[in-house]
């Protein structure tokens, strides 16, 4: 039988979290109870070239399992991961590169 390990989040980290446990639980329940609404709202966090109209298209039929998310929308990955952060966070670290030798590292900004 597996055991559940619970780790306490240090206060200095918890204070910087974007959501608290109660907000997480509410989001989780919405994702279970009204998944199309929940994931429809989550999809709006991204910048779309062509916005989606359909949140998900799923089939779990034997021999025809298919899961498609936001299939009629078009995204630009670079725009969402990098470009939209330039104005406010251009000088912040976007990627930390670390070589095989841990003493070799490089911080790469969004610019």
From TrEMBL:
Quick check: keyword DNA-binding in the entry? no
Q: Which SUPFAM superfamilies match?
A: Acetyl-CoA synthetase-like
Q: What is a single molecular function from GO for this protein?
A: acetate-CoA ligase activity
EC number(s): the record gives 6.2.1.1
GO biological process per UniProt: acetyl-CoA biosynthetic process
Write down the InterPro entries for this protein, in alphabetical order. ACAS_N, ANL_N_sf
Record protein name field:
Acetyl-CoA synthetase
Output the lineage of the source organism. Bacteria, Pseudomonadati, Pseudomonadota, Gammaproteobacteria, Enterobacterales
The record's Gene Ontology cellular component field reads: cytosol
Q: Keyword Disulfide bond: yes or no?
A: no
Which keywords label this protein?
Ligase
Q: Per the UniProt entry, what species is this protein from, by scientific name?
A: Shigella dysenteriae
Which Pfam families is this protein grouped with?
ACAS_N (PF16177)
* The Acetyl-coenzyme A synthetase N-terminal domain, residue ranges: 24-81
